[in-house]
Amino acid sequence: xxxxxxxxxxxxxxxxxxxxxxxxxxxxxxxxxxxxxxxxxxxxxxxxxxxxxxxxxxxxxxxxxxxxxxxxxxxxxxxxxxxxxxxxxxxxxxxxxxxxxxxxxxxxxxxxxxxxxxxxxxxxxxxxxxxxxxxxxxxxxxxxxxxxxxxxxxxxxxxxxxxxxxxxxxxxxxxxxxxxxxxxxxxxxxxxxxxxxxxxxxxxxxxxxxxxxxxxxxxxxxxxxxxxxxxxxxxxxxxxxxxxxxxxxxxxxxxxxxxxxxxxxxxxxxxxxxxxxxxxxxxxxxxxxxxxxxxxxxxxxxxxxxxxxxxxxxxxxxxxxxxxxxxxxxxxxxxxxxxxxxxxxxxxxxxxxxxxxxxxxxxxxxxxxxxxxxxxxxxxxxxxxxxxxxxxxxxxxxxxxxxxxxxxxxxxxxxxxx
Length: 418
Ligand SMILES: [Zn+2]
Hints:
Blueprint: E1 7-11, E2 23-32, E3 50-57, E4 63-65, E5 67-71, H1 86-103, E6 110-114, E7 131-135, H2 141-146, E8 150-152, H3 158-168, E9 171-177, H4 186-196, E10 197-208, H5 210-216, E11 228-229, H6 232-241, E12 244-254, E13 258-267, H7 277-288, H8 293-319, E14 324-327, H9 331-339, E15 350-351, E16 369-370, H10 372-375, E17 382-385, H11 391-397, H12 399-402, E18 406-409, E19 415-417
Parallel strand pairs: 6-7, 6-9, 7-8, 9-10, 14-15, 14-17, 15-16, 17-18
Antiparallel strand pairs: 1-5, 2-3, 3-4, 4-11, 10-13, 12-13, 18-19
Helix pairs in contact: 3-4
């Protein structure tokens, strides 16, 4: 099988939350291959690209990709194991402790984590006290199973929620962190939650907040794997339509992915009063223009301006005789490289220590990925930092900087450091 063969693509005809056909494109990042599809140089002729365009639903305010690309499991290789991050482990410990303290599930209660990955969240609960269940369609679930958890290897949806309610009993707590943005049929997902929650059950989700992307110009979070860019307003509509109710919201920092929202959801008639933070945030979103496309097109203008300025810095450095590289190869780095239209003539190599990526090329831009020791021998003076959210870590720890190199940090503003 070649890398291009297993993709299916569809164009959205209607909003995945409210069904409106008023989808207004506002950010066009060009045609790009899916961001995680790092390939071997010999597979370049088989590479496929798909439009990467974000549209606003003028009815409910959901930002969503106009084209949904689904890959079979060929890139499962890159599955990210959450438990390798200490910051994430601490984050989930806080979430589990807080949920048990606030909602006091009885001993033996069913607790479900959807998108459980390697079991990072399930591990945070007192294991003997509750009946813990993970849902994980990717091969990461194998790690959770080896750690002794029961894991259902499926995508969560209406039917699975109903059948689990019958087979395991309904759940007192359900968590889904960094999952919602990846779900195509989000209504079926919410209906599955409604079927699975007990009368006083609580569903907790965490997701990157659209307002942060707009405010700080974090457009590299846009890639094919992220189908929706979430805010409170469209989710209130979704939950209301599906017999659920969001009753509290908090802003949180999630390890590397940065600022996020944590939303607490129950069945519509559950005993939890709706916190004032919910209508407060909804009013705030309306005031900023959550359904007004002009506001999003202004954002797209700032994105184009950042692109032009990053390109100008790179061109200036090249004119001065510098050799330019890139540093780290996260999925989001490919949105940036492709939108900047970078080629191996602009960027000689990417330094990345993940052995699964070394020896391959970046999707679309085809820049060779090399380990850091090889990178240091290339005579690169400046490196575009693709994992720019880790700038402080890399400034302190990378041999490239210690040997006199400098980073071009692209976002939120192009800056040279140190
Ligand atoms: Zn909508």
